[in-house]
Amino acid sequence: MNNKILKPKTKVLILAAGKGSRLKELTNNMPKCMLDFRGKTLLERQISSFNKCGLKDISVVRGYKKNKINFNGLKYFDNNDYENNNILNSIFYAHKIIEGDIIISYSDILFDYKIVNKLLKSNHNFTAVIDVDWKKNYKNRTLHPLSEAENVIYNKTNEILKIGKNILSNKNVTNLNGEFIGIIKLNKNGSKVFYDNFYKYKKKYNNKKFQKASIFRKAYLTDMLQELIDNDIKINCLKIKQGWREIDTIEDYENYLKNTN
Hints:
Blueprint: E1 11-16, E2 36-37, E3 40-41, H1 42-52, E4 58-62, E5 75-78, H2 87-91, E6 102-106, E7 109-111, H3 113-120, E8 126-131, E9 151-154, E10 160-164, E11 176-186, H4 188-205, H5 221-230, E12 236-240, E13 244-246, H6 250-259
Parallel strand pairs: 1-4, 1-6, 4-5, 8-12
Antiparallel strand pairs: 2-3, 6-11, 7-13, 8-11, 9-10, 9-11
């Protein structure tokens, strides 16, 4: 008899509730994750990258034009109040699956499956994927300036000190830095900490300012991560160099099509 206990498979949660208004007319009738990229939607390309790493348990949080996202084999959670909340609250429409090992991903990024393979090897409670060669992605990207990047300042042991927009504006910043690409992995302990603290902060801040968000329900994932860091919870980096792209504006979409076969 084989007494080996198999480690549960890592789940995936993709956040796809927003409209993607900076893609203008391209998202008038569909969410941006359903845009065509050389014969496959953005979401299909993400799913393919996860599947190549053996990840099959994939859930999607839908919102804007939710009925357009209807692939077989996925689990769906609907954020019907997407116009009045943001990424952090969107995650917790899928609160039932925030447990065990889970990867949480933005839906507007293209990435090499090798990044996911590296991420799966991390045993930290929280592991955020950080591009340390990030500035190259902003060449010919006039509609999404450097100031829009979700930057990271981390220390020599690869623990994040600061995360969010506009944290590198101080010229005296000498710490190592990169850009959060929008993918984070939580292990079993990390999921519990993330889950418990979300509801704790939601109760505490309710209709109040939360980190850089004007009100808690408008918070980004990076606001939550910074709050955890400020409360002495470690968020570790997985450092990469390139291998991904964000599709945030019509310029990003056109540049991708122009520079790929």
